[in-house]
Design a protein that fits this description.
The structure is a homodimer. Chain A is mostly helical. Chain A has helices at residues 10-26, 31-38, 42-54, 70-92, 97-107, 113-127, 130-138, and strands at residues 58-61, 65-68. Chain A binds a DNA duplex through residues 9, 11, 30-32, 40-48, 51, 62-63.
DNA sequence: TAAATAAATTAGCCAAGGCTAATTTATGAA
DNA sequence: TTCATAAATTAGCCTTGGCTAATTTATTTA
């Protein structure tokens, strides 16, 4: 998904997002850490990283590690942004953080820029209308406990 | 996706939704129509319908047609509901109908009930606040033309 | 009702993305 | 520096969900 530039699958986007997060957090992204972070096997990571390399999202040298290309980084940051916006949105609506996480994970690859930015503006507006948000959350049965 | 009852993949859910739509519109769902409606080959439909049968979502007899089981119908209706709610939501935000269609198609399989119903309540509230919606749409560059 | 056409099915293929088991390379500690 | 362990890779397999081409069954029409 994601329109401009090269095509990347949902799976590829997930990898790029996590790789970027690891690099930000620790300066590098090892295969073993990518695997742990995504909850999949190291072998699967090796395969996908090879693909990401041939498709130009990553520079990879066997046994030596990998870095994102500018294009890979662009996609990683775009996905991170979608993640942020959608997480904010569902959190504002009072959805529990575990559900937010799962739902966002699934949705973030399927939204046009237009929809995403409309939701972003909506969040902005909702911030100034806590009364409205209160009514929405009130409908929820898992209220303030 | 969809929690309660049997598991169904996103693809299976798409099939069930379309089958239900065809049955509602014409009283029956032929392989050739399901294929046309989903934009895939008849052979692929035959395969998936067999699977939907063995998984209990559909009753199918070779060359004789198919009907939804109660469970299949339950899922079809649940997906249709998600489709409705998400379509309403993005439309309210001023997203173009083609984009709404594509986005909803992608998202509808990935939302928890909690998130879905929070969005439903949000739409309800937004209906009473056209001023708010106006501001959101205003941020869009493809405004009133 | 027999032949032509439309619909459905089968067989066999492909790519994406997972997996495990076995092997190879790198690295840290004695 | 050598050996034990950790990390990475390879080989080979699986499922999902597509596809085309060939075949079979149903249906329509002359």
């Amino acid at each position: 998904m994601i329109k401009s530039g090269n095509k990347s699958s949902s799976a590829a986007e997930d990898y790029l997002e996590r790789i970027q997060e690891l690099i930000e957090a620790k300066g590098y992204a090892r295969m073993v850490d990518i695997a742990a972070s995504l909850g999949i096997s190291q072998a699967s990571v090796t395969n996908m990283v090879k693909r990401l390399d041939t498709e130009g999202f990553v520079l990879y040298e066997k046994y030596r590690g990998l870095v994102l290309t500018p294009e890979g980084e662009r996609i990683a940051k775009e996905i991170a942004r979608r993640h942020r916006i959608l997480t904010d949105f569902l959190s504002q609506l009072g959805v529990s953080s575990e559900e937010v996480e799962r739902d966002v994970e699934g949705m973030e690859h399927h939204l046009s820029l237009d929809s995403l930015e409309a939701i972003e503006r909506l969040c902005q507006q909702l911030t100034c209308h806590p009364d409205l948000l209160a009514k929405i959350k009130h409908g929820s049965n898992k209220g303030i406990l």
